[in-house]
Specification:
There is one protein chain. The chain is α/β, with parallel strands linked by helices. 50% of the residues lie in helices and 15% in strands. It is built from nine helices and six strands. β4, α5 and β5 form a beta-alpha-beta unit. It is globular, with a radius of gyration of 16 Å. The two termini are 16 Å apart.
């Protein structure tokens, strides 16, 4: 990641997404697009929420799942790429239609990481992106990582939150 890249996060109000937003913005200077569920917020409540969310986590663009699924894919891709022109990473715990649409915005050599399936719908990826733009998709399961002996030793002897705060304060 760099200041010339944009990452896209789903389940924007989750701990993983908010932490990823802060890390991407503060450590790398990357732009961040966060996708959240709007549910039944009025326009006024939504506007207040997005402004608060942007200022709290440094997010550049907040989209609702509902508006994303109604936006023509080409328009969404243009919006996503308008921030920096490059979307090398998507962290997705929703999948389904939302994850499938987001995947279309990946840049050449970009990576879509799925770590959950909240929509309970299949993630559909176009073959052309993988073939012609060399994009990739990876799954991530934290439990698998904690089963590795070396990682398990490090994790049990470290407070990751303290390390993150210390690293961010050094910058």
């Amino acid at each position: 990641l760099s200041s010339s890249s944009t990452i896209i996060l789903t389940a924007g109000k989750s701990g993983v997404s908010t932490a990823a937003a802060v890390i991407a913005k503060r450590l790398y200077g990357a732009s961040v697009i966060s996708v959240v569920r709007r549910k039944s917020l009025s326009d006024t409540e939504w506007s207040a929420f997005t402004e608060s969310y942007k200022s709290t986590y440094g997010v550049d663009m907040v989209l609702s799942e509902e508006s994303l699924t109604r936006t023509p894919p080409k328009k969404f891709i243009e919006e996503a790429q308008s921030l920096t022109g490059e979307v090398p990473l998507i962290l997705d715990c929703v999948g389904g239609k939302v994850g499938s649409l987001l995947n279309l915005a990946l840049s050449r050599n970009g990576c879509h990481v799925t770590y959950g399936g909240l929509s309970r719908e299949p993630l559909k990826l176009r073959a052309g992106g993988s073939i012609f733009s060399n994009t990739s998709h990876h799954g991530f399961w934290l439990t698998r990582w904690t089963n590795y002996e070396e990682w398990g030793r490090w994790w049990s002897s470290t407070n990751p939150g303290e390390l993150l705060v210390k690293k961010m304060d050094e910058r």
